[in-house]
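hey can u check if this looks right to u? its 296 residues, i copy pasted from the old doc so theres a chance i mangled smth
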Amino acid sequence: MSASYLEANARERIVQVLDAGSFTELLPPAQRVVSPHLGQLDAPVSFDDGVVVGEGRLDGLHVMAAAQEGGFMGGAVGEVHGAKLVGLLQRAIRKKADGVVLLVESGGVRLHEANAGLIAVSEVMRAVLEARAAGIAVVVLVGGSNGCFGGMGIVARCADAVIMSEEGRLAMSGPEVIETANGVEEFDSRDRALVWRTTGGKHRYLIGDCQALVADDIDAFRGAAIQALRAAGPSALTLEGLAAEQAMLQQRLERFGDAADPQDIWRALGIAAPQDLAMLEADAFVALVDPYRVRP
């Protein structure tokens, strides 16, 4: 029976994405490694600080895995939360893991922890790149209700591959942040259709920000993660790869810089009726739009 990735919590996701019975959690709640900052602010704490980390198997491959808990502060990253992710990535290097799988669900930095949270996210970015430089592929899954925003949005794009569902969202700044900073005329965060067609999985797949689009199904995420890890081989962190990504971004700006709506981008790519394609299930959507995708 299929299970919704969107509706599952962090522990449910990680144990079902990995091979059955293979996951061993590191720093579990029983060890009570909590944020040193939240208690001082009389804010609630979580005994795992909102992230599950550990190791296991994925189709037999030895992997390190982490899952952010969107139910605790929207998966926001604080000092301990970030340290657990960094430690996991460093462990992957030490143990020469076959890969790292990050189940990301986060609004970004935990504002309660200010600079400590910002530093933590920057350290996670560096650790992802160090893992890739050591030849360890990093795959990110995005399908939670809180999306993948802020610093974790950058972390996701530092990985070898990003896998999303239609329900997932990926961006640097969240809709509410953009509206607060620039006004509702710039971005109406209450317009859910606008939010999803701007940051949702289908748009991100089409413009090249994610490498696979799957249904809201844990087994579908698992299958795509296996495929991404096996296809990655030695991690391709090279100057040539970076230059190709930069060229893609420059071309996107030149081609779509004047677009007022994401559907204008779809039309510019040659999709005649984007409003119709947007209603398709993930597999049918991928089959039809793959020739139009932006690629580095």
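DSSP finds twelve helices and seven strands in the chain.
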